[in-house]
């Protein structure tokens, strides 16, 4: 998933750029290059030439070298916009692989309380709703097509650029395309019903900031995201709760966040607000402990429209162990006791580069970090995770989302379903071999970055005025 942006900062970029709703994209728009050339007829002295600039509507028209009184300029050809092929050939359902997760793993019976999954759209047994965060390049319906290309049973997406406060509204055609693809395969869609989709909110939003102007700015972005979900028929909207920015107490931030939830529930129907747990325990960040999530929920008026999304990397970074069946069971028992299983609405699956309780939000590919494959096998075999979106936000090659490179997530989806089906006795025998094989595959898809010269090499000093190293993305949320 793209690097996280600060939730504490509410200043908009110096120059806002709206994207067309029919071509919403996770790719920042590039500045068009000027194609105008100065041409003119010399009159024998050093006077400036006359220039006829090009325009977007007639960029192939020449700036005339002849006197217009003597030569009639050529007629401009009207440009006719080419109709875009839908669906794009590279995302066509005809090339989608079979969905992963079959044959369906039979989950064990449980006596624990059920999760907060939406009512299922089918009575048939389904695999875990496992997928990845995919791009909305070309319009929101493109995200469903990309999930299909990945063989996923669930997905996450943004509603607009996560780097901008505002974007153009969705066009009716974009909404219709998305809703049609959400339908079952029998009805001509791709079979991604509302319970399988988890939207991720803008990283700019900070509803815990007591500054009134900044809070209002965040709320409008929050409300706009949720209204877009409503337009598309999506029911689950997940976002980072925010930070006190050191300007108020945690309790005051809880009240501000709940105020936003209560207001948006009255202004936009149906959509469920899903609060994500955070990584930086002991900081100004809100939602790092189960007790903080529970405190926010306690202030929500319509509790039927609030859920929690647990991010595994955030859990581990904040001190909740997941590495063994015993540690995982203890963590989920505490969640049920402090928050309640009925509020669990989704999960982000990420390994951690940082150690347990390291307070650093550093995502790693599944099974290759400090959590390890056993922790994720526990999740995949837990009945509590049935019927809710399980979304990968793991590292991928640079600009993988922008260019449509889904290879890393396609492989991780297969891996998670694979380890789900291995029984306990065989797991102890096979886990090391599976990890070694997967690490080799991951390295071939996304080679580890060059670590640079050894310790004996002379370190280069950073240019004046520049930071020596990039700040941990976990620190950005606290600004």
Automatic annotation (TrEMBL):
Residues 1-12 have a biased composition (Polar residues). GO terms for biological process: base-excision repair. SUPFAM superfamilies: Xylose isomerase-like. CDD domains: AP2Ec. GO terms for cellular component: mitochondrion; nucleus. SMART domains: AP2Ec. Gene3D superfamilies: Divalent-metal-dependent TIM barrel enzymes. Residues 150-411 form the Xylose isomerase-like TIM barrel domain. Keywords: DNA damage, DNA repair, Hydrolase, Metal-binding, Zinc. Its cofactor is Zn(2+). GO terms for molecular function: DNA binding; DNA-(apurinic or apyrimidinic site) endonuclease activity; phosphoric diester hydrolase activity; zinc ion binding. InterPro entries: AP_endonuc_2 (IPR001719), AP_endonuc_F2_Zn_BS (IPR018246), Xyl_isomerase-like_sf (IPR036237), Xyl_isomerase-like_TIM-brl (IPR013022). It holds the Pfam family AP_endonuc_2. Residues 1-100, 438-479 are annotated as: Disordered. Residues 438-453 have a biased composition (Basic and acidic residues). Residues 457-469 have a biased composition (Basic residues). Belongs to the AP endonuclease 2 family. This is Apurinic-apyrimidinic endonuclease 1. It comes from Kwoniella europaea PYCC6329.
